[in-house]
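Notes to self after the Tuesday call (sharing in case useful).
The group wants a holo model before anyone commits to mutagenesis around the pocket. I volunteered. Ligand is iron/sulfur cluster. Logging inputs and output together so the record is complete.
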Amino acid sequence: MRERFWEYFSLNELTPKEWEALCDGCARCCLQKLEDEDSGAVYYTSIACHLLNLEQCSCSDYPNRNRNVPNCVHLTLERAAEFDWLPATCGYRLAYNGEPLPGWHPLISGSRESVHDAGVSIRSFAMLESGEEDLQDYLLDDL
Ligand code: SF4
Ligand code: SF4
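Result:
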């Protein structure tokens, strides 16, 4: 990867490896969400997709994720303009908006653990979905 590529290149100039590295591994995008039909506002819950490995904060079946979870959104360059549904901390959203990556981002810290140490990942609070939950009961205030 090119040195500090996220500062010098736009999203459409990134290599596939650089694109993947923008993800901080927080798994916030794997939380279930509710959308206000009138305003389009997205509200996050503490319930995570059943395919998530919560300890690793990574998908347990990434290559087949759309077969098992049809509404799993692929974060591609073509969809960058829609990234405002992602959490404000998301590396793709920050890069798309020309904002700097935070110090806990693995590209800055040099460690995949820093996103957990900073309390940004969902590992410490999320629960895997069972399908029985009423998502209204699990809305988060701060995402
Ligand atoms: S919210 Fe963004 S940075 Fe976090 S896991 Fe999802 S894609 Fe990666
Ligand atoms: S299928 Fe995998 S990548 Fe998609 S939301 Fe679920 S855990 Fe996340």
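Two things stood out.
The two ends are 30 Å apart (CA to CA).
The beta strands are 31-35, 42-48, 52-53, 58-59, 127-128.
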